[in-house]
């Protein structure tokens, strides 16, 4: 018996949890890429009597957010693909709901590109040695990130101060997610 040839998809493809998702992703990805987006995840999952087809997209680089018009346009294109060439893949899924969205603000950051997309934001980080810190993400490379840890405020309402930037190896980070910040402005 010959050895099965490895799939051409990169190992990063935990993005698609099963063979059918990967098949649909292959059909949908060109439309995603045409709009300058990156396909983060594609998943078919039962939702009551129907099936939800989740398509999660984002920009691969930069900090710009995907706008609703772009999501609507993509949603339309994906619908056409699903009605057309993806029909065979979905033949035993009579009813499905298509959800096209961007990753939630609180999704875990796991890949170098996730960090690059969030430079400037405040992150909650847990390191492999169990340390937890809240830090401003100053920069990100393929191997590491540069962060300025927040100092505990001496008194409530005092301006937040940061320690000097330090570099953290991505392998030393157990979890990292964006901390949603609410900017409050002083009344004039």
TrEMBL record:
CDD domains: YlxS_C. GO terms for biological process: ribosomal small subunit assembly; translation. Its main location: cytoplasm. Residues 109-182 form the Ribosome maturation factor RimP C-terminal domain. One of its GO terms (cellular component) is cytosol. Gene3D superfamilies: RimP-like superfamily, N-terminal. InterPro entries: Ribosome_maturation_RimP, RimP_C, RimP_N, RimP_N_sf. Keywords: Cytoplasm, Ribosome biogenesis. Residues 27-105 form the Ribosome maturation factor RimP N-terminal domain. It comes from the Bacteria. Residues 141-162 are annotated as: Disordered. It is found in: Cytoplasm. HAMAP family: RimP. Belongs to the RimP family. Required for maturation of 30S ribosomal subunits. This is Ribosome maturation factor RimP. The lineage of its organism: Bacteria, Bacillati, Actinomycetota, Actinomycetes, Micrococcales. The gene is rimP.
